[in-house]
Amino acid sequence: MTRRLIVATLASLLSLLPGSFLLSAQNPREVVGRFERAYRSAKTLQAHFFQSYFENGREVRSEAGVAYFGRPGKMRWEYQSPEPNLYIIDGKWAWFYVPADHTVTRIRAKESSDWRTPLALLAGEMKVSRICARLEIARGQQPVQADGVVLSCQLRGSEPSPSAAGNAQALGTNVLFEVNRDTGELSRILVTDPGGVQVEFRFANWKFDARMDAASFRFAPPRGVAIVDGELK
């Protein structure tokens, strides 16, 4: 009877613990495995997104719209507020079109340093290891969703070099992404650059194998729109 009482008491206490404590014991590989499986089989994806920019912890700008993903490695971000903008990766080029400016910036997708570029993974081979040099459960990070797990990813190519030890600018770019622990669906991404600037993407209403025309992932500059080649960073 005493043993049963102890077990019941422990179960009750565990049910009261915050989700982040219980999830910290999870193997990040298991969580990533669910994430990869959730998106690997879909040929197209669609989701609503809300994008926020932060400086010194203060939100300075926010945008919202609908994002589309198509294999292999194609994306279309339709910004609807506060003003219409369009960001497309057609598999070779990345295009950023601002109708109000009558210009479109073009850069080779492989050379783009835009924060959205790694998300082409969702419409690619769907291997998180291709963009994350190191991956672990993000300790002390409270998930936004009750059933979320927050993972910390050190982007490949952003690892600090031994010769730059102690340099704040050599900390690399760290990405936190939150996925549903049961379904593997992506709900949030938070990117922090070495300068401390942050951009957060929140996703909702995912649609798998959404019906899309292949032309949606191509950009044809409207007449009178100037094409500007982006600078390499």
Structural account:
With 233 residues, this protein is mainly β. It has a single domain, classed as Clam (outer membrane lipoprotein receptor (LolB), chain A), CATH 2.50.20. 14% of the residues lie in helices and 40% in strands. The chain is built from 3 helices and 12 strands; from the N terminus they run αααββββββββββββ. It has a 12-stranded mixed sheet with strand order 7-8-9-10-11-1-2-3-4-5-6-12. The longest helix has 15 residues. The N terminus is likely disordered.
CA distance, first residue to last residue:
68 Å
Q: Any guess at the CATH architecture?
A: Clam
Return the structural class: mainly beta
Strand proportion, as a percent range, falls in: 35-45%
Class in CATH?
A: Mainly Beta
The whole-number mean of residue pLDDT values reads: 79
Main beta-sheet annotation = 12 strands, mixed
Radius of gyration: 20 Å
Q: Write down how many β-strands occur, each being a DSSP E stretch of 2 or more residues.
A: 12
Report a brief summary of the structure.
By secondary structure, the protein is mostly beta strands.
Q: What key phrases describe this protein's structure?
A:
233 residues; mainly beta; outer membrane lipoprotein receptor (LolB), chain A; 3 helices; 12 strands; 40% strand; globular; disordered N terminus
Annotate the secondary structure layout.
Elements: H1 2-16, H2 19-23, H3 28-40, E1 44-55, E2 58-70, E3 74-81, E4 85-89, E5 93-98, E6 103-108, E7 132-137, E8 148-155, E9 174-180, E10 186-192, E11 198-208, E12 226-229
Parallel strand pairs: 6-12
Antiparallel strand pairs: 1-2, 1-11, 2-3, 3-4, 4-5, 5-6, 7-8, 8-9, 9-10, 10-11
